[in-house]
Specification:
It is a single chain. The chain has helices at about 1-35, 55-60, 65-95, 100-110, 115-130, 135-160, 165-170, 175-185, 190-205, 210-215, 225-230, 240-260, 260-270. The protein has two domains: about 1-50, no CATH class; about 60-270, Orthogonal Bundle (MetI-like fold), CATH 1.10.3720. About 70% of the residues lie in helices and about 0% in strands. It is globular, with a radius of gyration of 23 Å. The longest helix is centred in the first third of the chain and has 32 residues, at about 1-35. It is mainly alpha-helical and about 280 residues long. α3 (about 65-95) runs parallel beside α6, α3 packs across α9 (about 190-205) and α4 crosses α6. This is Sugar ABC transporter permease. It holds the Pfam family BPD_transp_1. It is found in: Cell membrane. InterPro entries: BP-dep_ABC_trans_perm, MetI-like, MetI-like_sf. It comes from Enterovibrio norvegicus FF-454.
Length: about 280
Amino acid sequence: MSKKWYWRVGFFLLVSVIVVFSVFPFYYAIVTSFKSGSALFEVEYFPRVFDWSNYASVFSGGTFGRNLLNSVGVSTVVVAISLLLGVTASYALGRIRFRGRNIVLLTILGVSMFPQVAVLSGLFELIRALGLYNSMPGLALAYMIFTLPFTVWVLTTFMQQLPLELEEAAIVDGATPWQIITKVLMPLLWPALVTTGLLAFIAAWNEFLFALTFTLTNEERTVPVAIALISGAGQYELPWGTIMAASVIVTVPLIVMVLVFQRRIVSGLTAGAVKG
């Protein structure tokens, strides 16, 4: 009994350390966002005064509101297109047997492993040739490079685990392939769709390199680039309070989304882990 108690206490201590280590940076960013002036250089773990001036300066000093809308729009479009193409591609790769299917899957997995820098120059030339430089469609096209392969790979794995009898029964009833996908398979894929969609949204929301390279004006930039370009009144001044306030504003929506869809995410990540 005592050994069990020791193991349980040790487990809870380990979990507590991991939680504190993971959550403390965000908590300290919140605390710092309420400071200004010399108070920024004082180490305080509990805010004494809630000064909202940093949050007001984030929206009043530039185009941060427009940048926030850009990130929301681009990330939403990327998720919608990735899921649409991912579901249709996973149906073909997971349910239809054809020569070279494994090679296609390995190619998709290999593309997702390429670093962004390796495709940056070629993608830049492509976007400029298509006339999409410094535009939201150009960013959406660039983000599909790393969201679509991941979405296709994950959804194909889930698609392969669905019973073939469901599809055969739908074919007997006269259902078309599109009706099979939308009315038979997609309701069973909701946990996987939520998981992959949320991960694709977070990847597009946090992306920095493509957003910095493929946009030129402040009005077309996304929030990661906008935060990186926040400057103070002088050349050597770095407005930490404003930067922390902007970081909190950008992070809170992701936390809310994860909390809202946490059950779907857990079921999507664990589905298929145990057979039988």
